[in-house]
Design brief:
This protein is α+β, with helices and mostly antiparallel strands and 554 residues long. The chain has a domain of 199 residues. 59% of the residues lie in helices and 12% in strands. The longest helix has 31 residues.
Length: 554
Amino acid sequence: MLGFILSVIKYFIIIYVLLWGLLLMLDLWKLTHFSLRRSSSSCIIERDEVPEDERIKLELAEALLLGLGFVYRFSLRISPPIFDMPGPDAMYADIYHHAESDAYATASFQMSKADNFIGYLSHFTDGSHWETVHQRNNNFLETQNVFYECLPDDAAVWDAHLQRLSTTDSQPSRDEAQVRKIILADPVEFIDRMLERGFIKPSGHEERWRFTWSFAFRRTFRMWIDIQKKIIRPSQSSNAFEQIAPEKRATMEKNYFLSHRDTLRKSSSPHKWIISIVTAVLFLLVIALYTNWVISCAIFFVVALHEGGHRLTTRLLGYQNASIFFISGLGAFTVVKKKNNSPLQRLLVYLAGPMPGLIIAVVLYLIAFLSMPMMHWALESDVVPMFILYSFILNYLNLLPIPPLDGGQIVEMLAFSRFPRMSFVFSLVGCLILLISAYYLSGIILMLFGVLIALYIPTQWHRTQLRLAIGGNKTEQSEEEVVEQIFNAMQLPRFSKWSLKRRIEIANALIPEYMARQPRTWEIVVGLVVYLLCLALPTIIFFMPTIMLFMHTN
């Protein structure tokens, strides 16, 4: 038992590192391809000009600031400097004044963190100013007049700002007009500060810039470190967002999700192809590092054929934004989107991955068994036999009825789509069987598959919880109605600890399920028969020569 647990932990660490490496690379790539612009449309606005949803979020900081002695002065509309980053077209902030110290507070709301963002500003008669920001000092645009404070709450940050003011002989200015100029100039000067530090470079378009690779790498790596720290030691949130009524909160989350989704859909296909090529090269290198180039090329051809089958079929059936990403050392996955796809279409897409590789492997194997002279040159090489072996093993493993493998997706769609609990138990039992089999058979590939599937179990559990909260699938709903239904269900107390990122991930996974039509009885029967034939025939044909030889000797 101890040996089994240690073996699972070892492969879990390997897969965890490989997956995080892929995610880091994708984040690095995205960061270097965001387009930046000068935020020239920032302006002072009245309180009632702020949209209702934004006003509700901004007022979450009002009680705190009023308690500290601040008084509301005006509001601000800011256009984000990152042009094509997912998110809203404008950001809003409230500006408060503290009469006793002549300091100002800028209160905004970060939807990605579901919390307030408050900074304190003091302008002096000599023209200088100090800012104190409530966040960890990450050396991102660090300047002499900006101070970062990682303290328990915003009140403690205000105390730190006051303490810092007591150390200077400069006199606070009462010129609010000058303060307005400073606040409006800050987003505009963002690009200049970035250029001075060498963090951005011209993108080739007029008045557009991009992050440099060196800066993007430092930011991405620091972000990864922060995520690990949060996993090990979760930070205490102020839970300001939870003060909003559930109906309003659901609407805000839904709008945030839709704005991100619409922006991400605009991603250019050349960028996706470049990412596919880069991940494919890394895949080859990692496999070759642990084996040799012959095995690496054979496995790469198997995986490329598998994912190519998925992609070609999805294009023929009208799926959108099909992309292939390779996971170094593990495999690959195809990302596709389509509304209202039928069960038989989904069955065809799932089978289009493993079946071409299995058919080719069986045909080449039969040719070798029949000793056809025309194929001797190929079978005498090292790559073709390796291709036959790994094509059969990897594709047949993918046909096993274990989610999220293709076979598991088929069985789940046909047999368990109406039964969330049974679907989860089905996934859990299949994963355990695969892990135990891999341990006793000493199969590295089986163990890698099993651990990779085990990483999917928590997501499967979250989806199951949400599906139970929503209820059965409802047909003939628009996509917006499905999104609204999902985010309304997420406001239940049992989902209160889910981060916004997790909510978006789960919503993305569930939307296709609720948009797709439920299989009819005849489709279930036909689909299961086709799947069982695809599962049985390759095995029978592959072992037919051994059976024939056994019968001949007896």
